Recover the amino acids of this structure.
């Protein structure tokens, strides 16, 4: 005699999800994003203050910042501080590391030099430990 | 003696067809959006210098100015003359209340001359911008 009720037998039905289509879509999405993603190099920032060469009527600062000129001559880009001239970013970094940092530094960039040289000057100032860096557009 | 009737072995299933339809619709939407966003970024070769990592300044209002190798100013993928760009930045400074609340990021092509960079710096100073940030490509080394 079968005493088992039919309704109890239904408990043992295992539900199955047809996941094949879902996996297809997920793989398609993955493929799309892999193909569509452009690998951009990470970007950094060189922050600096902006100043002009105009003589304002403001009060003179207690500490006069050192002026770094970024210029070009026949041999290429040169970095000049007073009478000291260096031609490489490494030499510039070595020069800036010897200077006092409290007064800050003014980077005056000639319009004839490439942007890379301007960025190299600001970057060298940052690496040398200057906190106050001002960018001044030159002639 | 077979105690199971054929109706007990019937599998339960969900119909995934509407979900797949929606997912495909989403793919098409994002494909179009991605193309649109890509066109906003002007490809420029940034200076390869050591720099600070870009901080999270989402609370600040910011404007990104691209300068191409030829010296053209571009904002959000569109060429903008310098005088118009100056007006845009002046309006942003006015909206921000203080120039300290406005972040100006300049993405200049490293192969171009600094002349447009200097012209931009002069104009930004004139409208009250006190600081800016030069974008660089962070060296892998």
């Amino acid at each position: 005699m079968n005493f088992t009720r039919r309704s109890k037998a239904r408990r043992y039905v295992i539900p199955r999800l047809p996941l094949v289509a879902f996996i297809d879509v997920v793989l398609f999405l993955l493929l799309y994003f892999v193909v569509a993603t452009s690998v951009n190099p990470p970007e950094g920032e060189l922050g600096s203050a902006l100043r002009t060469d105009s003589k304002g009527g403001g009060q003179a600062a207690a500490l006069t910042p050192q002026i770094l000129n970024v210029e070009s001559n026949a041999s290429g880009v040169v970095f000049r501080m007073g009478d000291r001239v260096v031609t490489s970013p490494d030499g510039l970094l070595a020069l800036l590391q010897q200077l006092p940092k409290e007064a800050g530094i003014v980077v005056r960039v000639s319009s004839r030099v490439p942007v890379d040289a301007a960025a190299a000057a600001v970057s060298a100032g940052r690496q040398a430990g200057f906190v106050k860096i001002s960018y001044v557009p030159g002639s | 003696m077979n105690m199971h009737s054929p109706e007990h072995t019937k599998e339960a299933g969900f119909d995934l067809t509407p979900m797949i339809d929606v997912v495909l619709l989403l793919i098409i939407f994002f494909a179009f959006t991605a193309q649109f966003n890509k066109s906003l970024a002007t490809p420029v070769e940034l200076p390869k210098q050591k720099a600070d990592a870009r901080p999270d300044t989402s609370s600040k209002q910011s404007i990104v100015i691209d300068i191409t190798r030829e010296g053209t100013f571009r904002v959000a993928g569109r060429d903008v003359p310098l005088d118009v760009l100056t007006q845009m930045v002046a309006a942003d400074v006015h909206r921000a209340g203080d120039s300290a609340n406005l972040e100006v990021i300049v993405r200049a092509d490293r192969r171009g001359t600094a002349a447009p960079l200097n012209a931009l710096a002069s104009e930004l100073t004139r409208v009250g911008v006190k600081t800016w940030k030069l974008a660089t490509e962070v060296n892998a080394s």
Notes: Chain A is about 30% helix and 25% strand. Chain A touches chain B through 53 residues (CB under 8 Å).
